């Protein structure tokens, strides 16, 4: 039985995208007979989520080297912490045959065996050392397998937007969901609006008041059917993280309000591809641009949906696992 240790980051500021991504990967690896071990920092929503998924984690201290927590030699270690150092990767190498790292822009990226980054162009693999296999581009976006199913389903839009989903990530570190909800309720009284609050409980009281006031508003906590939920809405307002790629995979036009500076690059790339609208960063987002997007008609929505599906097919998770298997010759 192959063994893998997975070390993602998770916090209020980092969000939960790294955790969700690695749970998706772990579930598929488990189906193929892998033994999974998670190592994460103390962050209660992440710990609870892993426990619910059947992967009770080992809790690590942020200042302690991750390799100190490994109690055996692994076939693979997966790092989803970004910006690794050479010393960190070298210490991990003593505990594993191979290392895979996600979206790693640190010096350590040059010392791993597989580097996965769906935000970089495939041509950029030429900058990697020959010992590192680069899996770059949207073909390697690791999403729940449900997204590959909804990717194949046809989309049908009305003459104008009928429904919008607001999902600013599991933690919404910039607290954008509430002001965006108020903006949409003011701009579009007849719009069916769904807001996902994830694990950010601070906005629940105000959103509950709005939900009682506006029958068109539906407020939901953490959900397990994100692919279906995105597919059922005409558009989504989200940040430029994992949710943006999820929306693209199912062909849901996305209006991106970015939570972090590096998300701007991803959102702009998707806008240039015709699959999304990049509204800018945080509370300084372009309200007029959003107002125009809310008035998009059927031809524009259909065009964005088709362009989106050309970028991501939802099968990146299988491509990554296939590469891991070939490296191990299984």
Automatic annotation (TrEMBL):
<dbReference type="GO" id="GO:0016758">
    <property type="term" value="F:hexosyltransferase activity"/>
</dbReference>
<dbReference type="Pfam" id="PF04101">
    <property type="entry name" value="Glyco_tran_28_C"/>
</dbReference>
<dbReference type="InterPro" id="IPR007235">
    <property type="entry name" value="Glyco_trans_28_C"/>
</dbReference>
<feature type="domain" description="Glycosyl transferase family 28 C-terminal">
    <location>
        <begin position="180"/>
        <end position="295"/>
    </location>
</feature>
<protein>
    <recommendedName>
        <fullName>Glycosyl transferase family 28 C-terminal domain-containing protein</fullName>
    </recommendedName>
</protein>
């Amino acid at each position: 039985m192959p063994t893998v240790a997975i070390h993602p980051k998770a916090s209020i500021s980092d969000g939960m995208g790294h955790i969700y991504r690695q749970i998706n990967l772990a579930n598929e690896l488990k189906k193929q007979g892998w033994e999974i071990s998670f190592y994460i920092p103390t962050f209660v929503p992440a710990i609870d989520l892993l426990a619910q998924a059947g992967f009770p984690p080992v809790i690590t201290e942020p200042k302690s080297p991750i390799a100190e927590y490994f109690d055996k030699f692994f076939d693979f270690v997966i790092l989803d912490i970004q910006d690794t150092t050479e010393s960190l990767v070298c210490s991990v190498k003593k505990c594993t045959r191979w290392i895979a790292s996600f979206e790693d822009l640190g010096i350590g990226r040059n010392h791993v065996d597989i580097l996965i980054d769906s935000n970089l162009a495939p041509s950029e693999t030429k900058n990697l050392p020959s010992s590192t296999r680069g899996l770059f581009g949207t073909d390697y976006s690791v999403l729940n397998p449900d997204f590959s199913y909804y990717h194949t389903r046809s989309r049908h839009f009305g003459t104008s937007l009928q429904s919008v989903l607001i999902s600013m990530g599991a933690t919404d570190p910039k607290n954008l969901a509430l002001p965006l909800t108020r903006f949409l309720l003011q701009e579009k009284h007849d719009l069916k609006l769904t807001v996902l609050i994830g694990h950010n409980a601070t906005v629940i009281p105000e959103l509950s008041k709005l939900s009682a006031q506006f029958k068109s508003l539906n407020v939901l906590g953490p959900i397990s059917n994100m692919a279906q939920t995105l597919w059922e809405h005409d558009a989504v307002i989200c940040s430029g993280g994992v949710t943006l790629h999820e929306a693209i995979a199912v062909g849901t036009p996305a209006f991106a309000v970015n939570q972090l500076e590096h998300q701007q690059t991803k959102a702009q790339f998707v806008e240039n591809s015709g699959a999304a609208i990049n509204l800018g960063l945080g509370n300084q987002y372009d309200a007029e641009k959003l107002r125009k997007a809310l008035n998009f008609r059927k031809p524009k929505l259909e065009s964005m949906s088709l362009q989106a599906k050309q970028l991501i097919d939802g099968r990146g998770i299988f491509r990554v696992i296939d590469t891991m298997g070939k490296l191990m010759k299984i």
